[in-house]
Design a protein that fits this description.
Oligomer: single chain
Order of helices and strands: HEEEH
Strand order of the largest sheet: 2-1-3
Shape: extended
Radius of gyration: 16 Å
Number of domains: 1
Number of strands: 3
Mean pLDDT: 80
Distance between the termini: 34 Å
Number of helices: 2
Helix content: 40-55%
Length: about 80
């Protein structure tokens, strides 16, 4: 069991390192799910739309990086627009 856990941990660290090393050139937008009020950052380079389609776009494609999208989301959480 320890070997499986260790293998999973190593794989997770490897995937995280791979994701961190790839350039973040995509723009993001923030969506809010209508039934829960939860806000989520959505990468526009993903060729599909979020499923299910019960969401609204709060902040459009003017968010260039993940850190900017995270700052927008933090502000929306603080003013009550989004639920955690």
């Amino acid at each position: 069991m320890r070997r499986i856990f260790a293998l999973g941990a190593v794989a997770a660290i490897g995937f995280t390192a791979l994701a961190a090393s790839s350039p973040a050139e995509a723009s993001y937008h923030l969506i809010r799910w209508q039934d829960t009020g939860f806000c989520q950052m959505w990468d526009q380079s993903i060729p599909t739309a979020p499923y299910p389609g019960n969401y609204t776009v709060i902040v459009g494609s003017d968010v260039p990086t993940f850190s900017h999208a995270l700052a927008f989301k933090d502000g929306l959480l603080r003013n009550g627009t989004c639920a955690f």
